[in-house]
Write a structure and sequence with these properties.
6-stranded parallel β-sheet, alpha/beta, 2 domains, 6-stranded mixed β-sheet, single chain, Rossmann fold, 10 helices, binds NADP nicotinamide-adenine-dinucleotide phosphate
Length: 284
């Protein structure tokens, strides 16, 4: 660091588990950018102070994680269309004192899905399990692809209905009752688990019975701890192509890096760094 180092960081509560500093730190080193990225523990009642601090200190960029993704919007000068539709911000860019909020979670997920599992989403029937915060960005991003249909199923159906109503209606997005899951899994080309079922420490739990999936279909899971969930392991046994959550994490960070620096993100090195940080600690 020197007196020209540009500052970046992530705010959340809790934050000490975050892999963003190692991932973005590697991205800056790899790209020759004189930047420093820290993790900041910000309690909800200090969120306004934290954003004022970002302005005062001239941070170029910030990532925002749980529980601030919605509340932070009130402190920004501009909200990008994607973040507005999704209703949450995970990336802030400071353009000469104007703070602009973006959401890179959904587009990060879709970029990872296309690069790692299914390059062409045209005509695909996609089943999304879950309707929480992560599902919002993913459904929004999937609507931007030429998918044939997007089926949304959530244990609490009303939440799926609310999510579908909040997003632009284009006739392809349909809410499915949870009890029709078996049938829908069998018809879907891609089944995406956006629920928290299977996340460490409850790693044996599965959001749906993998025996319902069609061999050859893609089973995708947002969870990256463990890197391969029980759901993905069983789907692989069944002959499905599998796609884990690490790529989403890497690419949401890659988009943030690109928005901040204008440079292509070194995604491979970023993934390598996160994987190294997991060594010996996965599924904890
Ligand atoms: P959230 O807002 O709390 O939503 C949780 C979702 O899981 C809801 O749809 C909830 O259904 C469902 N659910 C919870 N327990 C369930 C159960 N026993 N059976 C069926 N459904 C259940 O959480 P989120 O922020 O969307 O995160 C969801 C997952 O995505 C987490 O595992 C998180 O780690 C992962 N994630 C990964 C990335 C990444 O970069 N890879 C990014 C964001 C999130 P109800 O509405 O019925 O409660």
């Amino acid at each position: 660091m020197n007196s020209h180092t540009v500052l970046y960081g992530v705010i959340g509560d809790p934050i000490r588990h975050s892999r963003s500093p190692v991932m973005l730190g590697r991205a800056f080193r790899e790209s020759g950018v004189n930047g420093a990225y820290g993790a900041f523990h910000v309690a909800p009642e200090r969120l306004g102070d934290a954003i004022r601090g970002i302005r005062a200190l001239g941070f170029r960029g910030l990532n925002v994680t749980i529980p601030h993704k919605v509340e932070v919007m009130a402190y920004l000068d501009e909200i990008d269309e994607s973040a507005g539709a999704i209703g949450a911000v995970n990336t802030i860019v400071n353009e000469d004192g104007r703070l602009i909020g973006y959401n890179t979670d959904g587009i990060g997920y879709v970029r990872s899905l296309k690069e790692e599992a299914e390059p062409d989403l045209t005509g695909k029937r996609v089943l999304v399990l879950g309707a929480g915060g992560a599902a919002r960005g993913i459904v929004w991003a999937l609507q931007r692809e030429h998918t044939a249909e997007i089926w949304l199923a959530n244990r609490t159906e009303q939440r799926a209905v609310g999510l579908a109503a909040a997003l632009p209606s284009d006739g392809r997005l349909k809410v499915l009752p949870w009890h029709l899951l078996a049938e829908a899994c069998g018809e879907a080309d891609i089944v995406i688990n956006t629920t928290s079922v299977g996340m460490a420490p409850h790693t044996e739990a599965m959001p749906a019975d993998p025996a319902w999936l069609r061999p050859g279909a893609v089973a995708s899971d947002l969870i990256y701890n463990p890197l391969k969930t029980a759901f993905l392991g069983a789907a692989e046994q069944r002959g499905c192509r599998i796609h884990g959550g690490l790529g989403m994490f890497v690419y949401q960070g890659a988009y943030a890096f690109e928005y901040w620096t204008g440079l292509p993100a070194p995604a491979r090195a970023m993934r390598e760094e996160v994987l190294a940080s997991f060594a010996g600690t996965a599924a904890v």
